Recover the amino acids of this structure.
């Protein structure tokens, strides 16, 4: 068994124009797309962004006739507390192999909005992780916590600052992830496009210290050219930190894969 990209978007996500076939032409490995489920989405005029599940399955069925890849179903759930009943209802009605859990917005702005640059960075970092802790306590029916640093992408937070400002919160977060068996995602878009690799290198030992053993790697690609971007770099970093395997998911069941 081999590993593969476990965070991809196609035109079934509101912010991607990529076609599934564009990924399939690049690899013979399994392909899972993790389309956005984002209620009250600030980046879509506060409309609900959800995949058309029937059309999604139909597209996969057509692609299975043309490509040998195993095709898996994935969803990226954007947590928003007021929409929690809608989130649970959508997931109950539609079957997926892999569920990512993300914290993308505060109800008013996506965390990559420039307005967050004007806030006190320490307060913002601590507020973001408290919201993540509170959200995870209310909803943890997922397989993977995606890009732990999403709310920090627009900031220039150093490893030293993250340690001083948020280590206790992150240790609590990682303990909950271990308790609820959520994997830690190495998001290569965060690491190498948003230059947060050092933050990942800082917190992964904390996750290991908390008893964490589950890791995934995802490119967070929204266009086909970013498929599996910087995977070799992410694997090398895991090796340096003493990690020799990741997990992949089918029907929400993790399987260990050597790297």
């Amino acid at each position: 068994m081999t590993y593969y990209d476990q965070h991809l978007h196609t035109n079934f996500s509101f912010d991607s124009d990529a076609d599934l076939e564009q990924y399939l032409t690049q690899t013979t490995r399994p392909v899972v797309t993790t389309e956005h489920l984002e209620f009250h989405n600030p980046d879509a005029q506060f409309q609900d962004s959800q995949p058309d599940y029937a059309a999604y399955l139909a597209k996969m069925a057509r692609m299975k006739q043309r490509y040998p890849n195993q095709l898996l179903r994935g969803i990226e759930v954007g947590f928003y507390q007021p929409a929690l009943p809608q989130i649970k209802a959508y997931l109950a009605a539609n079957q997926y192999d892999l569920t990512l859990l993300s914290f993308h917005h505060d109800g008013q702005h996506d965390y990559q909005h420039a307005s967050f640059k004007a806030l006190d960075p320490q307060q913002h970092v601590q507020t973001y992780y408290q919201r993540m802790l509170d959200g995870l306590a209310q909803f943890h029916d997922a397989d993977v916590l995606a890009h732990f640093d999403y709310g920090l992408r627009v900031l220039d937070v150093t490893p030293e600052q993250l340690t001083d400002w948020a280590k206790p919160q992150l240790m609590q977060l990682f303990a909950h992830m271990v308790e609820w068996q959520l994997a830690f995602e190495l998001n290569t878009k965060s690491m190498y496009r948003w230059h947060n690799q050092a933050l990942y290198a800082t917190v992964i030992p904390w996750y290991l210290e908390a008893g964490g053993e589950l890791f995934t790697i995802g490119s967070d690609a929204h266009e086909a050219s970013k498929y599996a971007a910087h995977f070799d770099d992410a694997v090398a970093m895991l090796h340096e930190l003493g990690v020799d395997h990741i997990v992949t998911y089918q029907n929400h069941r993790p399987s260990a894969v050597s790297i």
